[in-house]
Amino acid sequence: MTTERDYYELLGVARDAGQDEIKRAFRRLARELHPDVSQEPDAEHRFREVVEAYEVLSNTERRELYDRFGHAGLRSGGFRPSTFDFGNLSDLFSAFFGDDLFGVGGRAGRGRGADIGARVEIDLADAATGTTRDVPFEVAVTCGRCAGNGAEPGTEVAACPACSGTGRQSQVSRSVFGEFVRTQACSSCHGSGRLIQQPCAECNGVGRVIEERTLEVDIPAGIHDGQRIRLTGEGHAGSIGGRAGDMYVEVHVRPDERFVREGNDVYCTVDLTVAQAALGATVSVPTLAGETELTFEPGTQPGEVHVLRGRGFPALQGFGRGDQRVLVNVLVPRRLTDEQRRLLEEFDRSATDATYRADDGFFDKLKSAFR
């Protein structure tokens, strides 16, 4: 860990700040402190601190670990701040929104845009039927003023003389073992291979600008919690006309207190009174498609499982559908009136072994239901 300063203090946000607020704070500070912009002597150190803070607070699991146990908890969890080379301001857009937050490396020519990650929440019933959701997000798009060139219209972009437009510089070192060639991004053009004499007034030489968009995303029936949907070409615009990255929408399914999902099957419980279990009853039980009537035979036992074929989740990739399994819970009365107690005692005295004898094949039926 390179610093023990409070991450929330570094970004200037409250401890209950949302992800959008954290992202905005990081974007603002990164623009101020990036070596391409800031002339302050400690700008590089402060920039790395801000990047480290964002790396932790933008990740839900790391943030929870930090909130509970601080820097020590992050260290014990194996977290180490990412190391990276400073790119130019155009590289910073990838740092803001790309999945690979710190894997930013410049190179000459066209570069593929960074991917975008988004998150959407749906109900369990929606996961069974499929649904659509509007997903808002911010994306870097090609600057309309300079068409992604980065230079003010009417001005020229020259090839970097230090690297002859390649964006890379090589150093040769000699030792007793031979010659070693070390190649790295050009320090003059930060790996772009280009030198812009007059940056575009709209994008400040970046070639891309931030735009807010909303996409209607189709969520297929049968999707599982945590799965991602890939939308090709909906990510950040590439540099110098390179193709756009992709967008990955991570789907989270809200828990439903009525159901438990296991694969494509769904489980629920139904409460029967002692009288209903003994005499038989028709009761309403929840399903993913709404309430349905289910008949229980006289003598229904606690723990019995009734299977509703085809009432579970559809297979996400393939055919068929899971089942719904209804587990019976028999409610035993906790508070009895004197009359109720007398009647139960009278019933108990009149009961025989035959009253409680299980039907032949009961356990076989139970095993079959679980299978």
Short synopsis of the structure:
The chain has 371 residues and is α+β, with helices and mostly antiparallel strands.
Present the secondary structure layout.
Elements: H1 7-11, H2 19-33, H3 43-57, H4 60-76, H5 89-97, E1 116-122, H6 124-129, E2 131-142, E3 157-159, E4 168-175, E5 178-185, E6 194-196, E7 208-219, E8 228-231, E9 247-253, E10 260-262, E11 265-273, H7 274-279, E12 281-287, E13 290-296, E14 305-308, E15 324-331, H8 338-350, H9 353-356, H10 362-370
Parallel strand pairs: 1-9, 11-15
Antiparallel strand pairs: 2-7, 3-6, 4-5, 8-9, 10-11, 12-13, 14-15
Helix pairs in contact: 2-3
Can you walk me through this structure?
The chain has 371 residues and is an alpha+beta fold. It has three domains: 83 residues, Orthogonal Bundle (Helix Hairpins); 167 residues, HSP40/DNAj peptide-binding domain (Sandwich), CATH 2.60.260.20; 111 residues, HSP40/DNAj peptide-binding domain (Sandwich), CATH 2.60.260.20. Helices cover 27% and strands 27% of the residues. The strands form six sheets. Strands 10-11-15-14 form a four-stranded mixed sheet. A three-stranded mixed sheet has the order 1-9-8. A two-stranded antiparallel sheet has the order 2-7. The longest helix is centred in the N-terminal third of the chain and has 17 residues. It is elongated, with a radius of gyration of 32 Å.
